[in-house]
Each structure stands twice: as structure tokens, then as C-alpha cells.
Amino acid sequence: MEEDGVYVERLSNGATVIIKERKDTKAVAVQVWFGVGSVFENDKERGLSHFLEHMLFNGTKYTKPGEIEAEIEKKGGNINAATSYDFTYYHIEIASPFWEEGVQYLYYMTTAPLLSEEMIKKEKPIVLEELNRHLDNPKNRLWETFNKLAYKISNYKHPVIGYRKTIENFDRKLVTDYFYSHYVPSNSYIVVVGNVDKDKVLHKVKETFGSVEGKHYKPPSVPLEKPQKRIRKKILKKDQITRAYVAIGWHAPPVGTDESFTATVLEEILVGGRTSILYQELKEKGYVQAIYGGYLAHRGTSLFLFYFVTSPDKVDQVKDIIFKILDDFRKNGIDDTLVEDAKRKIVNREVFAREEVTHDAESLGYAASVVGDIRYDIDYTERIEGVRKEDVDRFLKEFLKDSNYTEVQLLPEQ
User: What digits encode the pLDDT tens for the residues 122-158?
Assistant: First the structure.
């Protein structure tokens, strides 16, 4: 199947290959996406998706530890990986003459890792030290507290990196059982974008990823949170910090829904750069040192949030300004010019970003593995352009009420 220059084929073993030929570049992005992330882990597996990301760089049945990275770097390429709540992916960016090696090496890594007991023992202290650094950062404590308050049903309440107890208890059986039940063809998406020949890529992918066997697995749907009907709030205190860090957020619809595009437009209006409303009202006027936020997309219940840094004595004042702005918009609606300007910025930025093959491939891989629909990426700018002022007004009234948010403050210990 080929749509808008994107070729998609599901192979006989269940793996999905996605190819986009681009003759406007000399680069190629090769990525392998899996519907594997911390949201699908059970209590014994917390952090295992992230741990496996480390393990897949520790040698394969065909290569020694470090060999793949060295070979890619010799050719001027980059190799890395990322694990999130909803997905894991492995990626190589390389010059077009070497795309075949990129496919071959990711095939080795993601289908034939060693996962040896020796390497598990070697990797545990490394991941535990990463956890220590994670826990030493006060802002991570804020977000972990926030997620546990905001999520009562789904596993978004657990940190992607996991917990010390679970990481320490990882053994070879748990690691290999998880890998061979989740990293299977039916749950994998091989994405190649750049200066390539589609037929040659398809042949190579069938020869490699298409030869893999494995039991069928598709990620289950993530349960949605029950409607939040009250304010959930917690105040944390920490010594050795001098500023206040505050997160305020609301439950929002899953990625891929009509409302998710509306949320993206509202994000641009409120916190999308220096011309956004909250940046102008809070940062430019000296109320905060920083203000971020917007739509945080998930397969399940997502979030629309604000995060700001200010002096402790200004927290309530900043909150009052934010809630007054939201209240004014709920009562009077958002000006149509703000909506149109936001849409134009998003579309222009997206067009520019997709000049990079890496971003182009990431968008396709995310659409296929997380949203479950390649059209999410193909139609993205069109769906943004279709958002109306009425949609934004309705989103504000339905989701961003003043009685159903979650708030966590991290303040200096007095």
C-alpha cells in the first residue's frame, strides 16, 4: 500500500515496514519501533523496557559489544535509542550509501541480542546509577509525585526508569521472557526514510526482519482514567533549592483523537514560544523565570499541563494569573485570530522539521506504533488546519476546569 509517497506493507510474519523515498537528501534514517513501554509493565517488570534498551547495546549473536556502534560511527553515522511510556525505538542516521548496513545492524540488535547473565550483571549498576542521578534531581521528584496523583488506574503513574527494588531483581529469565514476548514481529515497525530505492529496501527488510519468527503480540489498550471531579494537590519541601517549581495539569483525551489536535493548537496559543499568551503575561512581566507546558500525548489518558519556575512568594500570584486567563477564555471564547495564527505556526514548523529525515521517520514510526494509524502522520498538518475556534472553546470548557486539576508544588525548605 502506498499513500502520499509513503509505502507500507505488513510482512507475512506480522512485521510492518514503512518506506519513504526522498531524493532531496543524501541522508537516511533507519528506525525500528516497538509497541513496548513502561505502561505495559507489571509490578515485577517496572523499568524493564528501559533496561532492555541498555541490554540491546551489549552484543548480539552476530556482533561483539560495542561493535555495531563502532561500525556506524566509522561511516559517520549515529545510533541511539529511546524508551517512553508508550513506545521504544532504536535508530540510525547515516549517509545514503550505507543504508543497508543500518538495516542489518538494527536487525541484529532488535532480533538477536545476547541478553547474557554476564551483561545483565554488568548493566544493573549502570542503570542503578542512572536511577540515582534521576532521584537526585528535585524536579524528577516533582514529576513522579505529580504522575502518582494524576493517574490512579493506568501505569503512567510509574516512572519509565522503574524502581530500585525491581531493577535489582531483574534476572535473565525475566529479561528474556519479556524480550521474546514483546519484541516480536507483530509488534515491530521498520521505518526507512531518505535517499533509497523502495524495492531494494523492501527486499532487504524481508530478508532480515521478515525472516524472524515469534508468537503474536499486540499491546493491549491502555485503560482510561475515571473523570477527575476534584482538585488533587500536594506540596513538597526540599532543602538546597531556592526557587519554587510548580506543575498544574488536567486529564486530556488520548493521542489521535480529534481533541488531541485541538489540544495542540491550544498549547501553541498558551505556551508556544515567546509570543504565546502565558510567556508574555508571566515571563516577560517578570512573574516567572520559566513557563512550559501543553498537551502531553499518551495512548491512554493524556495531560494538558503547565509547569513554571518562580520565587516562592509569587506562586499564588502566578496561579491566579493563569486561572484568570483560562476563566476569561472559558467565558468569552478565544479570538479567532489567535487560533489561526497558532495553526499557521504549527504547520510551518512541522513542514520545516520534516526536512530532517530523522524527524520524518520518527513521525511515521510514532503514528504506526503508538497511534496505530499511519494516516495520523500523513494527515497531521491537514488535521491541525481543520481545528476551529469553536473546537478550542469547547476543549477549554470541557477539560480545563478550575475544579478538576492536579497540582504539585516543590518549595524550598524554610
Answer: 999 999 999 999 998 989 999 999 999 999 999 999 9
Q: What angle do CA 295, 298, 299 make, to 5 degrees?
A: 145
pTM: 0.95
Question: Distance from first CA to last CA of the chain, Å, rounded?
Answer: 63
Mean pLDDT in the chain?
Answer: 96
Last residue within a domain, chosen from 211, 245, 263: 211
Task: With a cut of 90, say whether residue 29 has pLDDT above it.
Answer: yes
Q: Give me the CATH number covering residue 305.
A: 3.30.830.10
Q: Does residue 142 contact residue 247 with C-beta atoms inside 8 Å?
A: yes
Total count of domains within the chain: 2
- Domain match, 371 and 400 both: yes
**Arithmetic mean of pLDDT, 41-47:** 97
CA separation for the pair 34, 37 (Å, rounded): 8
Q: Taking a C-beta distance cutoff of 8 angstroms, is the pair 250, 304 a contact?
A: yes
